[in-house]
Write a structure and sequence with these properties.
Shape: globular
Number of helices: 3
Number of strands: 8
Radius of gyration: 19 Å
Structural class: alpha+beta
Order of helices and strands: EHEEEEHEEHE
Helix content: 10-25%
Largest sheet: 8 strands, antiparallel
Length: about 140
């Protein structure tokens, strides 16, 4: 209570742990994230990817190269994204298993999803991420 007898409005905590559903809701709106993979020497590689979430899965396209090779050697990956809006920031991780799509019916379906690459480069391979665990935080930004 203040000196005028009124209670101040409750302020949101500085840090809030998000539920899996809250992370999923953020993921459904996310189009750009960072993919963490591990190379054979144990080093983590962070790569930007354009993504689309659909039906509980996450999809992105890639070209042949080190990212694809690392996914084929180690299916466990982490997808990370964050954003700032208003007086809040969000950051979340999706711990997932990656799978290169090769089935023609799956490829036809994912090709219809709204995935727009930022770079005009040839990316012939589709990768599906199956989330195993979702974790996230919301931060109240200082003034």
């Amino acid at each position: 209570m203040n000196i005028h007898g009124r209670t101040a409005p409750a302020q949101e905590p500085v840090l809030t742990v998000l539920t899996e559903q809250e992370v999923q809701d953020l993921l459904d709106q996310t189009r750009f994230a960072r993919l963490g993979t591990v190379d054979p020497q144990g080093y983590v590689h962070i790569t930007p990817v354009n993504i689309v979430a659909d039906g509980g899965k996450i999809y992105f396209r890639t070209a042949a190269g080190s990212k694809l090779t690392q996914l084929l050697l180690e299916e466990k990956v982490t997808l990370q994204a964050d954003r700032v809006e208003g007086g809040q920031a969000y950051s979340f991780n999706v711990f997932a298993r990656a799978r290169l799509l090769t089935d023609s019916q799956e490829l036809e379906y994912v090709s219809s999803l709204p995935l727009d690459p930022w770079l005009d480069t040839e990316k012939l391979e589709w990768v599906e991420l199956s989330p195993q665990k979702l974790e996230g935080r919301r931060f109240r930004l200082g003034s």
